[in-house]
Every structure is written in structure tokens, then in C-alpha cells.
Amino acid sequence: MDVIQETAAMQQRCLALRKAGKTISFVPTMGYLHSGHLSLLQEGRKRGDVLVLSIFVNPTQFGPNEDLDSYPQSLEKDLDLARSVGVDLVWTPLPKQVYPDGYSTYVNVERLTEVLCGASRPDHFRGVTTVVCKLFNVVQPTVALFGQKDFQQLTVIRRMVADLNIPVEIAGLPIIREGDGLAMSSRNVYLSVDQRQQALVLSQAIATAQQLARGGESDPSEILTLLRKMIEAMPDARVDYLQICHQYTLQDQQQVDADSVLLLAVFIGKTRLIDNSFLL
Q1: Which end of the chain is more exposed for a tag (fewer CB within 10 A), N or C?
Q2: pLDDT at 64
Q3: CATH annotation of 2-173
Q4: What is the DSSP track for 27-55?
Q5: pTM, entire model
Q6: How far apart are CA 222 and CA 156, in angstroms?
Q7: Tens digits of per-residue pLDDT, 176-232?
Q8: CA 127, 49, 140 angle in degrees (round to 5)?
């Protein structure tokens, strides 16, 4: 496994691989790898001749009062995990290599980024789409793999790729959960023991919503009212958003149907957790 830091060197390596007829599977991450990331890498190993991982904590997707400075990092552990699943190339750029002095170009996807996480994190998705576009330009992937836990992010990236004619397949893989149902996230490490227990209310709310929808409840407001009561019963919980949206437009659904996705963001103490699921 080769580890490359310089952007130009990484791009040259990947361009040479594509010129040689190799297909590239790519998993972009911010590091602190867990089983969810490994599931993407394992699938990527099957889908391409060369498996590439990027580890980059992207500063442009963090707001001024968010956790950029404290975001968990474990490069050596990440590299060991990458080797264990057969990664061929790891790109670990520094911020100044991705955003050099004078950088002033950004990618902005409209509408899809103005709701849900975009409503409470107004510049977040501009940072995500910009860095992902740059990563694609450097790595030249045939397929890029993302987790469905970040459902809005996946939807936005698919829109960007379609709108800008970027020649890469976007694959969304299922959420990987802990044994008790909590969606795996690098930010779970922030939770205290008690908060970790309270955080289970997210997956419990999803299960309740699915039970209601599959039992015939088609009014989103009825489902959301019950879920909010469930979540707010936790002493450290604060709802950021709790919505049932159309899977493609991310607009609120007026009736639960096969396109309906429950999306929620909840603070447990100071830790913001997201989760989602189709209801039918």
C-alpha cells in the first residue's frame, strides 16, 4: 500500500493508472475509520482494479462553531485498517495542498442543500461538493462509494455528478450499525456512557416510524409528532430536524409512500448525530 501526500503526485499516479486501462474504486473519508468505512472499502475492492482511500478532514465543510479542531483523528490506525482490507493507494493531503493560497473557486448545488442539514449548516454542503469535486479530479475514479447514513450528502453528490457530467459512478451503501442499533459514526466517540445509551432513541424512533407506516399510517405529521415526543423524553436530546422527505427532492412529503425517507438530526448533549431510513 502506497501513502501519498502531494496532490500533484497523487493525480499523476491516478492518471497513469487510468491510461493503463485500470479501473479505480474510491472511498473519500475524513479518517478515524470504523466498520462503516471498512464496508465501503471492502465493496470498493470488488468493484475496481485499484482501491483508493483518501483521508482528509475538510475545513470548508465545518462552520465557525463546529468541531473542526477536535475532530477525532488516528492516521496510523487508519492506515493499518486500510492495509487489512486491501487498499492500494491512500491520499493524505494537507489543507494547504487542497486549498492553496488564493483559492477562490467553489461548487454549489442549489435547492437540495437548502434543507435539512443545509438549513442549520448553511455553508456545509458547499464545502462538501467542492472538496468531492476536487477529489474526483485528482483520483479519477471509475466508481466512488459513500455511506447512506449521510443521505442528504449522497443525494447532493449524485446531483452534482449528473449536473456537471462527471464520469464517475456513485454507489450508496447501507448504514452500518452497532449491535444495539446506533448508526456508526466517528462522532460517537464524543458521547459519555449515559449519552451513548440516550442516543439509541434515534434508531428506536426509526423503528417506531417504520412500524406505524407499515401498519397503515400515511400522515407524516402524525408520525413525526410521536417521534418528537420520544426523542425529547431523553434528558440530553435536542432535535435539530425531524422530517419525512421525498428521496430525490428532499422536500417534505404530504403522504407516506415508497419514496418517503425519515431523516433526523439530534443533538445528544453537544454531539450532533444523524440517521435515516426509508419507511416502507
Answers
A1: C
A2: 87
A3: 3.40.50.620
A4: EEE-S---HHHHHHHHHHHHH-SEEEEEE
A5: 0.95
A6: 28
A7: 999 999 999 999 999 999 999 999 999 999 999 999 999 999 999 999 999 999 999
A8: 30
| Amino acid symbol at 221 | S
Q: Are 264 and 239 in contact (CB under 8 A)?
A: yes
Does residue 38 carry a pLDDT above 90? yes
> Cα separation of 243 and 152, whole Å?
12
CA–CA separation, 52 vs 234, rounded Å? Answer: 41
The CATH number assigned to the domain with range 186-278 reads: 3.30.1300.10
pLDDT tens column, 101-110: 999 999 999 9
Please say if 246 is a catalytic residue.
no
Could you give the strand order of the β-sheet that contains 2-4, starting from the edge strand earlier in sequence? 2-4, 89-91, 50-55, 24-29, 143-147, 169-173
In the block, residue with C-alpha cell 422527505: 245
Residue 171, classed as helix, strand or coil, is strand
CA 76 to mean position of chain CA atoms: 22
Q: What share of the chain has pLDDT > 70, as a percent?
A: 100
Of the candidates 183, 173, 185, the residue with the CA atom closest to the CA atom of residue 205: 183
Q: Residue ranges of the domains in the chain?
A: 2-173, 186-278
Q: Determine phi and psi for 157, rounding to 5 degrees.
A: -65, -40
DSSP 142: S
142-162: pLDDT as tens digits: 999 999 999 999 999 999 999
Q: How many residues does the chain have?
A: 280
